[in-house]
Amino acid sequence: MIYQGTNLHVDFIEPGIAELLFDAPGSVNKFDEKTLNEFSDALDALAANADLKGVLVRSSKPTFIVGADITEFLTLFADVEKTKKWVHMASRVFDKLEDLPVPSIAAVNGFALGGGCEAILACDYRIADETAVIGLPEVKLGLIPGFGGTVRLPRVIGPDNAMEAITTGANHKPEKALAIGLVDAVVKSDRLKEGALVMLRDAIAGDLDWKAKRQPKLEPLKANDTEKLMSFSTAKGFVWAKAGKHYPAPHAAVEVTERGAGLARDEALNIENELFVKLTQTDAARAQVGIFLADQVVKGKSKKAAKSASKEIKRAGVLGAGIMGGGIAYQSAVKGVPVVMKDIRREALDLGLAEASKILGKGLERGKINQKVVAKTLTSITPTLNNSELADVDIIVEAVVENPKIKGSVLAEVEKVVSKDAIITSNTSTISIDKLAENLQDPSRFCGMHFFNPVHKMPLVEIIRGKHTSDDTIAAVTAYAMRMGKTPIVVNDCPGFLVNRVLFPYFAGFSLLLDDGVDFPGIDKVMEKEFGWPMGPAYLCDVVGLDTADHATHVMAEGFPTRMARDDNGAIAQLAKNERYGQKNGKGFYEYSVDKKGRPKKVVNPDVYDIIGKKEASAEKDEIIARCMIPMVNEMIRCLEEGIVDSAEEADIALIYGLGFPPFRGGPFRYLETVGLNKFIELADKYADLGEMYQVTDGLREKAKNGESYFKS
């Protein structure tokens, strides 16, 4: 044995050829601190071995290496000096692999991401099997590769391909990896190890010139000044168009490649270290790493709940077709759970099927699915006008009109049709689950299952627990949501549940700005361009539907009369009264049409001011942001304090996946902690006279006083 560690070991597998095998005790290999230290020691042992002629690097697991241990990042990044030392040390470990006095080859199976990709780049040759997925996704964490990836990748596949890969964080499957030169060969899984050994033996024998293969990675980038100027100018334009000003990592990826282009490896690596450390200190990196960690918390809870489910969902029923019902039916069917779609009108069923067909058609057009998937999905949706077709389903998703009397009647009727152990859910967005449960004989098998529109694109499903809902019901619905490819978050019942409950104070803050005479296009511009929302509040109201938003204000006012009182004279109510419903009928705050190329466009028609009044006041961007966001953050804090949501992590993921909360801000709680609890309180107190929704809770004041965090780790 050349080297034996806990997470990897090295030994000769034939005369002269050593195998460095990553074999961590858990389900995957990753570059945590312990593994990096063992990797360094193993490479030292290899370099000192006089009998060594070649090195094979591979994994004992279904995946190669998934990357660095991201759970260590936030603690590490809090100490900038420690971060500098860590990244300098860690990146030089990979140099040890590249500098071995013998040829090396990586045999890549499964995921080789981040540090895993950087490890294979440090090898002289790379061979992959058909399961390989290779990439540098660090930009999605607000970072750039830190173990030499920005130096080696441009020298292996060229600067254009490298900058595209790094700035997008895209993964590469075997065919693409081979085409751009990221790997040297692709073989079947059962031939991976032997194929690697054949190449390694050829290199040892001199049939492959491994020294010539390695040399370009040690030298400045081979490109003339004109080529480099064109590459970097194009990359900068592409990144600015895609990432804008809020995401510094893609810009840093271009900068590090450009600055390092004329330098040899060691000097270029110093630049990578410098910019990596700089990014670790940005709010965007902390937020995006925070999202990753929060997502792991949510997924862990969901998997645990799903494993405890005693009922498997094999066949589903959707009540109410149309766009929403059709979207739910499509999502269930495309993920392998056949669905009965029931409505009282043939026209609605036709619309539901058309919605499913439209989604499939777009997927087919873009090459994401084939005709077989289209056929299988459509044949898995059974449209019907008869309740009797629902007799053998395992779950019902009620998606009829948002009216408590109609929903209650439909739920009571379907309970008599389905089996005694069938689960019944409602896709209501605001109506109390406990109130709807009053219509059922067995409320223990009932909960909310709130999808977001468009269903096939929005990853979140809110699962709403009523006071009588059983744990078995929650577990089974969680498992079904996961099978549908969704991220389920379980919340407790209250008006609006979680996402809509915190959305309406945001709308209310927006409405108060309108009342003060601030024009809505200006508010939208600030909330989109400066804060980072995909849509400003006026635009979002139009997308939600002003009639829907107006209806929901009744529910929210009834639930929270002192904080969310309805304003009959407000812009939302007046626009709905004048049948300006938003995108659904082409006119709301904005008016909607398509341009000559068929692309949707929105314009402000001055006629809207006849309804909402002329807006001529101005407000600074910081005031607009504060007056919209303080009510939302305050309401989310109340939801956590009241136990509507279990954790800050789940709250953040809910708003990112359900509303498109700007990822570079990390969710409402990450945003709150980035601003600083004391500073947020000071800002909110400035606007406290605007009403209760601007007034912070005693719990927040106590946390700020004690210097506590809302996050558990």
From TrEMBL:
Key words of the record: Fatty acid metabolism, Isomerase, Lipid degradation, Lipid metabolism, Lyase, Multifunctional enzyme, NAD, Oxidoreductase
Pfam families (UniProt xref): 3HCDH, 3HCDH_N, ECH_1
Annotated NCBIfam families: FadB, PRK11730.1
EC nos: 4.2.1.17
Record GO terms (molecular function): 3-hydroxybutyryl-CoA epimerase activity; delta(3)-delta(2)-enoyl-CoA isomerase activity; enoyl-CoA hydratase activity; long-chain (3S)-3-hydroxyacyl-CoA dehydrogenase (NAD+) activity; NAD+ binding
SUPFAM superfamilies reported in the protein's UniProt record: 6-phosphogluconate dehydrogenase C-terminal domain-like (SSF48179), ClpP/crotonase (SSF52096), NAD(P)-binding Rossmann-fold domains (SSF51735)
PANTHER family: TRIFUNCTIONAL ENZYME SUBUNIT ALPHA, TRIFUNCTIONAL ENZYME SUBUNIT ALPHA, MITOCHONDRIAL
CDD domains found in the cross-reference section: crotonase-like
Gene Ontology biological-process entries: fatty acid beta-oxidation
Designated gene of the protein: fadB
Name under which the protein is recorded: enoyl-CoA hydratase
Pathway the protein acts in: Lipid metabolism; fatty acid beta-oxidation
PROSITE patterns in UniProt: 3HCDH, ENOYL_COA_HYDRATASE
Catalytic activity: a (3S)-3-hydroxyacyl-CoA + NAD(+) = a 3-oxoacyl-CoA + NADH + H(+)
Ranges of residues in domain 3-hydroxyacyl-CoA dehydrogenase C-terminal: 496-592, 624-690
Entry GO terms, CC: fatty acid beta-oxidation multienzyme complex
Top-level class of the enzyme under EC nomenclature: lyase
Domain of life: Bacteria
Residue ranges occupied by any 3-hydroxyacyl-CoA dehydrogenase NAD binding domain in the UniProt entry: 316-494
Family: In the N-terminal section; belongs to the enoyl-CoA hydratase/isomerase family. In the central section; belongs to the 3-hydroxyacyl-CoA dehydrogenase family.
